[in-house]
Write a structure and sequence with these properties.
By secondary structure, the chain is of the alpha/beta class. About 30% of the residues lie in helices and about 25% in strands. The chain is built from 11 helices and 19 strands. The chain has an 8-stranded parallel beta barrel with strand order 2-3-4-5-6-8-9-10, surrounded by 6 helices.
């Protein structure tokens, strides 16, 4: 599981990923395509293995904001359509098209840049993003018909998709999004009548899928739920217990165990003049690897030899744990910060909680900082 030079690891469960995809499929039905949001290195889980697994599971495509992530998929044989969220300058469009990617365009400058490297005989696919009220990025909804009409006059472009983003984290946001979904449906109806409706349309995402908001779009684009993460700040909005976290283990190994005598100091924890002897273990994992220092008032724990042990301190490259009560603990023993050891376990919510972070932020903090391993599933190669 580990090596002697870097005895740290994080494990992702591809069977859980595939099961979460199946649960999304059950909720949206057979007629909507499911695009996977793999932005942020697939929410910290590894863009390439995630994309391979979801391609095998039947995803319609992947969407990301990172050119490097998208290129990684292309260079490693992932055959799914890969859509780049709006984020590139117009001058970067030719490079995206040359790499076999589908750019999102929100203005005519980008459209013209794409058209300059395509031909009517081999038109380039593009997606268009419409702003339905989030106010972040996209063509304003009242301008979208004119925008698509202008694109239709450029035979070197093929508008393959139209999408929007309507996330929400609480019940007030849900009410807002419900109205915006209805407006998007009306917009699609008007585009259908005018002959400007692209084959792929999308508004639904994790929050809407979780609460059962339906629409007439041809697809959804899901991120949080695929990884067993909640999109909600308010847990009362929807029950997502059917979705299981894909990250399933985070661990290291003890590199030293020391016995401190009565009266000794363990200054890293503010223990000066110990009233009684204490055994302390150190693992080579810390803030540089994505751990956070414990939030005030929390009692962070790790697992050693199947027992919960208090975390004394998190420094830049080390974790210090209290080994009193763990008989026989020695260098080389596993230290789990997330996962199960026998009948005892630490779940993602507990791990994130002692650092005062959301589950998503805790996973993102670990992203690409530790050797990643993958269990189960099918990566498609």
């Amino acid at each position: 599981m580990t090596n002697a030079v870097d005895p740290n690891w994080v494990v992702h469960d591809l069977d859980a990923l595939a099961a979460n995809f199946s649960e999304v499929r059950r909720r949206v039905g057979p007629d909507q395509g499911i695009f996977a949001a793999i932005k942020g290195n697939a929410y910290g889980h590894g863009a390439l293995p995630v994309a391979r697994c979801l391609e095998h599971a039947g995803a319609a495509g992947c969407m990301t904001g990172s050119f490097d992530e998208a290129l990684l998929l292309r260079e490693n044989g992932v055959g799914l359509p890969v859509v780049l969220f709006a984020g590139a300058l117009a001058s970067g469009m030719p490079e995206l098209i040359g790499a076999g990617l589908i750019p999102t365009i929100v203005d005519m400058a980008a459209a013209d840049a794409v058209a300059s490297v395509a031909t009517p005989e081999a038109p380039a696919d593009v997606y268009v993003k419409v702003d339905m009220g989030l106010g972040r990025i996209g063509v304003p909804s009242h301008e979208i018909e004119a925008f698509l009409s202008a694109l239709s006059q450029r035979p070197a472009l093929n508008v393959a998709g139209l999408y929007t983003h309507l996330p929400f984290g609480d019940n007030a946001g849900r009410e807002w999004a419900s109205g915006r979904f209805r407006a998007f449906d009306d917009l699609l109806g008007g585009l259908d009548v005018s002959g400007l409706l692209p084959p792929v349309t999308q508004a639904g995402a994790s929050s809407s899928v979780a609460v059962g908001l339906a629409d007439r779009a041809s697809s959804v684009c899901v991120g949080h739920l695929l990884f067993g993460l909640t999109p909600f700040a308010d847990s009362s909005v929807a029950d997502i217990s059917a979705f299981k976290p894909v990250i399933c283990e985070l661990g290291s190994r003890l590199i030293q165990v020391t016995a401190h005598r009565q009266g000794d100091d363990v200054a890293i924890a503010g223990m000066f003049g110990l009233r009684q002897g204490k055994r302390v273990g150190v693992a080579p994992i810390g803030a540089a690897h994505g751990l956070q220092r414990p939030a005030p008032g929390t009692v962070p724990m790790a697992l050693v030899r199947g027992k919960r042990v208090p975390i004394i301190a998190v420094s830049l490259e080390h974790l210090t744990v209290d080994l009193d009560g763990v008989e026989g603990a020695e260098a080389g023993d596993t230290v789990l910060l997330l996962g199960s050891d026998g009948a005892t376990g630490i779940d993602l919510e507990e791990f994130a909680g002692w650092s005062g972070m959301s589950c998503l932020d805790a996973v993102l903090a670990l992203s690409e900082r530790l050797p990643a391993q993958y269990r189960g599933g099918a990566e498609g190669g």
